[in-house]
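Q: Please design a sequence for this.
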């Protein structure tokens, strides 16, 4: 018998089989389940049919065997059927092991397409045609979803379900970002649900149901969050399984790296302190605007440029900056614990004339002076400020004068004799290049080997804590972690030594500077 003939025979006997199942089962739904199981076994075993005459005998033999298996399973697993009188939540507790509780538990684990069809049919009382219209699918697909849902629910109710650790001990992740453009990742990852989805599928690939059990969050609350994470490539889907697509640096990993590289912190601080002392006079003689600032402010200015070079130089050669789902090139990762020594941040922004403002924000205990958020994303403020740095005799509108007043209040601008002056160091492009050249030579000769060793150590440790599918990100993220160990901690050491003082001069911005374009 060929395949076409077989399908014709099965179509011919399907009504007979369904009638047989209706006689053997108490409900129409169970009859549908049983008949589907019998038809499936018939198709799977078709190769055993010798000829047309044997079809009916074979059919009833299969039907009898499948029914016996179904009946034994029904006795063993006394499951609860879907009905319209499912009790509300207020009469159920998590300690309730009744069939109703198990049924409601399994409903929360149904994936979205099955769950919607099931709720609309059994709870909302809508017909298959109404569901078809609402979900924009065919009626036959609706029937298939209902059939599959019943099977999934029955199987699930007979299983033991244990909630994972994240259900009672949720993680708090700190989203980290380094690259071009606005930091969309920070705002996107503020959701605790998103953080715990990523944590759940970090070391193991999980289905949506497994993520639900691990986090203790019902699927209806996870659906949209999972979709958003997948769209932004923070998690990736492999078949029915999800796995995290960003590295999480755990507390254990952070502590291990910190212990391994601690010996380098004082070495870096010592060399920077000596360099600044030896080169201070040379630095002043360059003649930039602000070269007459206080000694402390100029030490901070030199340190800010040095630390920028340290962080931006000697990255791993194969650590290409990846492109995010938002379109910018940036490294994305998460921390379980923020290193308390991460007390600085970098930022730079361009004016319409291609002048550039550089920020090296110090924010420990709110004791910093100057913050890139005062200008970030505000082109008008940047353009006004850089025009004042150029000593342009610009006539400001009343609207612009409001911005100038805000900058005076925050200490970026000083008004003297009806003139506006800036309180930041300002370099020409040539002056800035001269400074960079000398500092890069110093770092290459004195610090490069230390920095490379720190990166290598951090990469080895991070690699041992990172799942296999994320190993290609390890070198890049390890070089990002350099910010804490090669910048923040040495800078903190210099502050503790009082070589860099946080007793700021009232009329000077110590960590903000401008480079004027030609």
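A: Design:
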């Amino acid at each position: 018998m060929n395949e076409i003939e077989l399908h014709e025979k099965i179509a011919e006997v399907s009504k007979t089989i369904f009638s047989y199942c209706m006689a053997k089962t108490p409900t129409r739904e169970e009859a549908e389940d049983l008949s589907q199981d019998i038809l499936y076994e018939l198709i799977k075993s078709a190769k055993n049919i010798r000829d047309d005459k044997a079809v009916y005998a074979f059919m009833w033999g299969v039907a009898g065997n499948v029914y016996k298996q179904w009946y034994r399973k029904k006795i063993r697993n006394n499951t609860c059927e879907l009905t319209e009188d499912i009790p509300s939540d207020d009469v159920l507790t998590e300690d309730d092991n009744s069939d109703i509780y198990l049924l409601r538990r399994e409903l929360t684990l149904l994936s979205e397409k099955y769950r919607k069809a099931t709720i609309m049919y059994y709870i909302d009382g809508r017909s298959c045609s109404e569901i078809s219209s609402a979900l924009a699918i065919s009626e036959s697909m609706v029937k298939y979803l209902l059939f599959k849902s019943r099977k999934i629910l029955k199987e699930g109710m007979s299983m033991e379900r244990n909630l994972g650790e994240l259900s009672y001990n949720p993680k708090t992740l700190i989203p980290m970002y380094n690259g071009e453009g606005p930091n969309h990742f920070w705002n996107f990852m503020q959701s605790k649900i998103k953080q715990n989805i990523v944590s759940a599928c970090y070391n193991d690939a999980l289905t949506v149901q497994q993520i639900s059990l691990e986090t203790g969050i019902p699927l209806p609350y996870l659906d949209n969050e999972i979709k958003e994470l997948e769209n932004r490539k923070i998690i990736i889907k492999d078949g029915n399984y999800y796995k995290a697509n960003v590295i999480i640096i755990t507390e254990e990993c952070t502590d291990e790296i910190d212990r391994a590289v601690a010996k380098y912190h004082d070495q870096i601080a010592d060399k920077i302190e000596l360099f600044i002392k030896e080169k201070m006079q040379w630095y002043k003689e360059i003649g930039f605007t602000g070269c007459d600032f206080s000694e402390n402010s100029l030490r901070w200015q030199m340190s800010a440029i040095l630390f920028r070079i340290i962080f931006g130089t000697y990255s791993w050669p194969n650590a290409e900056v990846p492109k995010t789902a938002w379109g910018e090139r940036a490294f994305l990762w998460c921390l379980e614990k923020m290193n308390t020594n991460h007390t600085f941040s970098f930022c730079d922004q361009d004016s319409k004339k291609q002048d550039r403002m550089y920020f090296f924000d110090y924010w420990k205990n709110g004791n910093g002076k100057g913050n890139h958020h005062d200008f970030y994303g505000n082109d008008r403020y940047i353009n006004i400020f850089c025009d004042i740095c150029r000593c342009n005799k610009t006539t400001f509108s009343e609207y612009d004068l409001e911005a100038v007043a805000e900058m005076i209040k925050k200490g970026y601008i000083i008004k003297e004799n009806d003139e506006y002056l800036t309180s930041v160091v300002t370099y020409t492009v040539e002056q800035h290049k001269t400074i960079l050249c000398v500092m890069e030579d110093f770092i290459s000769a004195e610090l490069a080997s230390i920095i490379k060793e720190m990166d290598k150590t951090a990469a080895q440790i991070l690699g041992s804590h990172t799942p296999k599918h994320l190993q290609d990100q390890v070198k890049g993220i390890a070089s990002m972690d350099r910010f804490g160990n090669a910048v923040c901690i040495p800078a903190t050491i210099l502050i503790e030594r009082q070589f860099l003082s946080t007793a700021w001069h009232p009329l000077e911005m110590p960590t903000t500077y401008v480079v004027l374009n030609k």
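Q: Thanks. Anything notable?
A: Confidence is low (pLDDT under 50) at residues 84-96, 314-318. The radius of gyration is 34 Å.
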